[in-house]
């Protein structure tokens, strides 16, 4: 059975046409299910756990990348299949998965090509796309070695899936994460990214001596703090993908 979860921002009147089109298409394709609408009064985790107890085996998130990130972190430990319907064409996660926007995504759901993807895990928090630290003096411990950014301005990106801005093309099925450490130089009030260091890994530890720890932004949604253990969770997410996905 399908559970369709609409993010709270879709309650705005401008999205009514989109939702009507999606609902007509899932009816035409005979993949109807229960619709749940998120709000500040609803606990997402409780909603999903109750649905799974009641026999729902496919959880479909309708919204944007933040919607998908929020729900992935809940369903990662569960025995369910995940699907996405992007509310627009801006979703980087949907692009990698080969999912077209709006009601066109319903055809991919109906075709039901399922892959098992790796997830990243920071302490007890899962992420699909990437986690990023900016301009922090952090130390990364991996296999007995310690690596640190060489400049005050820098980015440390933990990558699991392909991004147009990544120095490497990460693969969410290879059982490996990449730490991409990019120093940034400042000259004449201009910032220039220098050649990055790429560290493939399955488990690292990140810490800093800075008071309060360094902030880690995961999937552009949740901010975590160091110290942190970052590791791969192989084949953790069962997800419906399209034929135009950017990985095998």
Key attributes of the depicted protein:
single chain; 248 residues; alpha+beta; Rossmann fold; Tumour Suppressor Smad4; 2 domains; 10-stranded mixed β-sheet; 7-stranded antiparallel β-sheet; 17 strands; 19% helix; 41% strand; elongated; kinase activity
Describe this structure in words.
- The protein is α+β, with helices and mostly antiparallel strands and 248 residues long.
- It has 2 domains: 2-111, Rossmann fold; 125-233, Tumour Suppressor Smad4 (Sandwich).
- It is built from 5 helices and 17 strands.
- The chain has helices at residues 16-28, 44-53, 65-75, 92-97, 105-111, and strands at residues 2-6, 33-37, 58-63, 81-86, 113-122, 125-127, 130-134, 138-142, 145-147, 154-159, 177-187, 190-193, 197-201, 203-208, 215-218, 222-225, 228-241.
- The strands form 2 sheets. Strands 1, 2, 3, 4, 5, 6, 8, 9, 14 and 17 form a 10-stranded mixed β-sheet that branches. Strands 7, 10, 11, 12, 13, 15 and 16 form a 7-stranded antiparallel β-sheet that branches.
- Strand 1 (2-6), helix 1 (16-28) and strand 2 (33-37) form a beta-alpha-beta unit.
- The model has no long low-confidence stretch (mean pLDDT 92).
- InterPro entries: ATP-NAD_kinase_N, Diacylglycerol_kinase_cat_dom, NAD/diacylglycerol_kinase_sf.
Entry summary:
With 248 residues, the chain is α+β, with helices and mostly antiparallel strands. Helix 2 crosses helix 3. The chain has helices spanning 16-28, 44-53, 65-75, 92-97, 105-111; strands spanning 2-6, 33-37, 58-63, 81-86, 113-122, 125-127, 130-134, 138-142, 145-147, 154-159, 177-187, 190-193, 197-201, 203-208, 215-218, 222-225, 228-241.
